[in-house]
What does this fold into?
Amino acid sequence: MTERRTAVVTGGGSGIGRAISLRLAEDGFATAVLDLNEEAAESVAAEARQKGHEATAFKVDVSDRAAVEAGLDQVRSTYGPILVLVNNAGITGFKEFMKITDAVWDRIVAVNLSGPFYCTQAAVPDMIEAGWGRIVNISSSSAQSGQQYMVHYVSTKAGLVGFTKSLALELGPKGITVNTIPPGFVDTPMLRASEERGLLGGTVDHHADLTPVRRPGRPEDIANAASFLISEEAGYITGQVIGVNGGRNT
Ligand code: NAP
It folds into this structure.
C-alpha cells in the first residue's frame, strides 16, 4: 500500500457524507470532499482542517462522467492515488408509480446509480495499481424492505446492492474490497426535508419510537461502519450488505 492514503467521499457536504468525510480525515486519510454544493463541501473540508486533518473540497456532479473524471484527476494531483471511494451522493424522491416521468426516473438513476458507476471506474485503476483499495457504497434500507411511492429511488438503491456484490467478485483478487451500507432512518437534511413535506407517514420522533433502539440514526453511526469497512481489519469482508438501521431491518 502507498504511504499516503487518499479517500474520496461523494455528497460529502451534508448529512451522512459530511460525517464520513470528517471521520476518514480523522482516521488519517487525505480526504476529498466531493459535492454538487461547493459551499457545503468547503465548509466540511475547513472543519476537518481546523481539527488538524487533511481535507479539500471539490465541486463535482457525480451524474456527469466528464466532470467525475476531471474531478478525480484534480484529487489525484492534490493528494495522489485514490485508494478509498465512498459512493454516498444521492437524491431521494416520492411519487406514485404511475406519476414517475421519464425525466424523474432518468435523473434519479443518473445520480444514484450512474454516479457510483462513473466514480468507481475513475478510481479503480489507482487501487489496482496499488494492489489495495476500499469501496463503500451507501445504498438504503428501503432496498431491503421496499418503500411505498419510492419505486424509482428504491430501484437505484437495490441496483447498488447488485453493483456491490458483483464488483466485489471481480476486484477481490486485486486486494480491493467492495461493500454496501444500507442506512435506515438517519437524521440528516434529506430526512428532515421529507418530514417537512409530510412524506414520512409521521414525524421523525414517531418513527424513532418504532425503532428497536428507540432513536433515529445519527450520521456518525454510518461513518463508524464505513470507517471499519475501510480499515485494514476489514480486509476479509467484501461483497457484504452491512445494515445500520437501529434494528428496523434485519
Ligand atoms: P443529504 O443530507 O441530502 O446529503 C446528500 C449530499 O449529496 C448533498 O450535499 C447533495 O447536494 C449531494 N448531492 C446530490 N446530488 C449530487 C450529485 N449529482 N453530485 C454530487 N453531490 C450530490 O442526504 P443524506 O441523508 O446524508 O444521504 C446520503 C446518502 O444516504 C444518499 O445516497 C441517501 O440516499 C442515503 N440514505 C440516507 C438515508 C437517511 O435516512 N438519511 C437512508 C437511506 C439512505 P445538494 O444539497 O446540493 O443536493
